[in-house]
């Protein structure tokens, strides 16, 4: 009989509320014969304040035993900027080699977009997750003096680029439009940019059916708001991916519905699934958070574990729920979760 | 009697066409007693192909003699990516210490925006122009092998940050709303990010009337499309500034109307003014390019040289011209220039 052994990290702020709904939908959608085991972990601001720890080696050892990880949100104003981000989120992505950071953007019917004319938006960003300017490499000298100098070093390897580029080509190949865009800034960041571009072109030879284009990151932000229908699959570096996926979320219904997967395709470590939004401390505990992004992250999680039918069922449910919202009074986090649970079970 | 000694660099593609209109408007707007001298320089793809040169020490020596520089656009597909960008554009910005890269965004009446609901957009981005990941620092080893590694180093100094931050505060202080946002990514790029944040807070003590906020660059892209009216002045790093100013241009009428100044406020070197758009080789020579961005860059140039009345006259003319376009057939580059020349002279 089948089973899923899931690590659950509700985290901070609205993380608690949205993860509860994610689990509700997961239980509702899974076939009877699949045994779901969950173990909750208390990472985030509370643990940090209580123990000073963000993510220890022992924690990683424990997390490693699971099939996948569901995360709500990490981050709180009471913790200095960077501590939980670097000490937990990025540490986990790096430790478990989550090199495919997958962020689909689809403007669903009835969902509001800040763009005029309700454009067709249906693309996925494959963001590199373990290299670039995210490695923490750099430092500061003469801190606090007028002579301070700070550096940030972006590290890029052929190994790291090639595997994520190949993953993106394969995803493009599997989609009807078969289009792949590389987003970088190879006219300025020439060292990393040329490495990315060369590998992108080389790997492309293995995928003759995929149509490719190259686009500078600044130009990409223009096209995302003027011609979003142009995009099918985008592959990009860790930092550019961070920036353009927030913009992509904004144009396709907002971060309330933006899901993401931090994927290790080899399966050597569990992959982690999380909404793109943060912990939103300003609305935490009020039942105002939209759990859709987390629920859609659960769909990505199920797809990753091979439950394609169930993943699609969740996506259809969210899509139908969003379409029904138009003109209706706002519901609580819990009410939305309940409605989705009914839909996926039905 | 007053005089302006201007270096003119039409450059590549549509650069030629739009600069011609910029000069037309400059001549038309200047009072009789101002003597305008211009000297044209042939930098860009042609010169590079003919001589292999992009910008020599002798060129810089000559350019230095001018009061200001007007640039069309540099770049051509026949030149490998990065050669003209690094070898000319960035070399000039760095050599002349253009640390204030000024990019105003204003959605003028009648101008189309991809955003729904015609929001109020009127802000200016002060982009640092001489540091960050733009210094060219970095390298590649084992090029062309599976073991290649490429780095990019972002260099940030207290000196460089403080001067641009102070400039941005002064600009915010001089505007009615007196708001300043720092855009960075200090939760991930902690070394540079904390240096920027610390200096931003410190300098802020000198400007008690200015309201400040900090925003991550990814979040900034969301707010730019969902709440652009939120912004008044933004100060940011070289790369983040590159990215968000293209997005800012896109939402406020497109790069056809986005002007910029590469300013050295000390006056030690001439400042350079250029449209944000590139050389657009696909439409070059067809009279299709909108010269408005270049004409608005001429307004920034005049303001920098102390001709405030004339700068405002140009801005009003462009605003009126754009408002009149609605529903009319497209005009040529030259026709738009002629119409603007009549307006500013009138
Ligand atoms: C919180 C932060 C470290 C993170 C990132 O920059 O990757 C977030 O913005 C994201 O996109 O998941
Ligand atoms: C052409 C390129 C070097 C330049 C930059 O990145 O600064 C351009 O995008 C700009 O914004 O002026």
Automatic annotation (TrEMBL), chains A, B:
The record marks 134, 185 as: Important for catalysis. SMART domains: Iso_dh (SM01329). It is an enzyme of class 1 (oxidoreductase). Keywords: Amino-acid biosynthesis, Branched-chain amino acid biosynthesis, Cytoplasm, Leucine biosynthesis, Magnesium, Manganese, Metal-binding, NAD, Oxidoreductase. It holds the Pfam family Iso_dh. It catalyses: (2R,3S)-3-isopropylmalate + NAD(+) = 4-methyl-2-oxopentanoate + CO2 + NADH. Residues 5-340 form the Isopropylmalate dehydrogenase-like domain. Pathway: Amino-acid biosynthesis; L-leucine biosynthesis; L-leucine from 3-methyl-2-oxobutanoate: step 3/4. It is found in: Cytoplasm. NAD(+) binds at residues 278-290. Its cofactor is Mn(2+); Mg(2+). Substrate binds at residues 93, 103, 127, 218. Catalyzes the oxidation of 3-carboxy-2-hydroxy-4-methylpentanoate (3-isopropylmalate) to 3-carboxy-4-methyl-2-oxopentanoate. The product decarboxylates to 4-methyl-2 oxopentanoate. PANTHER family: D-MALATE DEHYDROGENASE [DECARBOXYLATING]. This is 3-isopropylmalate dehydrogenase. It comes from Streptomyces gibsoniae. The gene is leuB.
């Amino acid at each position: 009989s089948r089973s899923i052994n899931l690590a659950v990290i509700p985290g901070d702020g609205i993380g608690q509320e949205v993860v509860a709904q994610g689990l509700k939908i997961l239980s509702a959608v899974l076939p009877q014969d699949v045994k779901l085991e969950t173990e909750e972990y208390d990472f985030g601001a509370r643990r940090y304040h209580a123990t000073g720890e963000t993510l220890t080696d022992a924690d990683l050892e424990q997390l490693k035993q699971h099939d996948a990880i569901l995360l709500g949100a990490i981050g709180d104003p009471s913790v200095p900027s960077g501590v939980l981000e670097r000490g937990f989120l990025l540490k986990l992505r790096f430790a478990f080699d989550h090199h495919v950071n997958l962020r689909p953007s689809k403007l669903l019917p009835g969902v509001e977009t800040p763009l005029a004319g309700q454009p067709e938006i249906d693309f996925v960003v494959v963001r590199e997750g373990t290299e670039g300017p995210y490695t923490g490499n750099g430092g500061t000298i003469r801190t606090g003096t007028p002579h301070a100098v700070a550096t940030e070093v972006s590290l890029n390897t052929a190994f790291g680029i090639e595997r994520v580029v190949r993953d993106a080509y394969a995803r493009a190949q599997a989609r009807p439009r078969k289009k792949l865009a590389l987003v970088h800034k190879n006219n300025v960041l020439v060292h990393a940019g040329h490495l990315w571009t060369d590998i992108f072109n080389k790997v492309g030879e293995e995928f003759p059916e995929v149509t490719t284009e190259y686009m500078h990151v600044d130009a990409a932000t223009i096209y995302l708001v003027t011609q979003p229908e142009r995009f099918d699959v985008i592959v990009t570096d860790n930092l550019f991916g961070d920036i353009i996926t927030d913009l992509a979320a904004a144009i396709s219904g907002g971060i309330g519905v933006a899901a993401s997967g931090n994927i290790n395709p080899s399966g050597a470590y569990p992959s982690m699934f999380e909404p793109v939004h943060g912990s939103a401390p300003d609305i935490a505990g009020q039942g105002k958070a939209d759990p859709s992004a987390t629920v859609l992250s659960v769909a990505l999680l199920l797809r990753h574990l091979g439950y394609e039918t169930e993943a699609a069922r969740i996506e259809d449910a969210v899509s139908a729920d969003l379409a029904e919202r138009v003109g209706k009074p706002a519901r609580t986090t819990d009410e939305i979760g309940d409605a989705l649970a009914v839909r996926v079970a039905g």
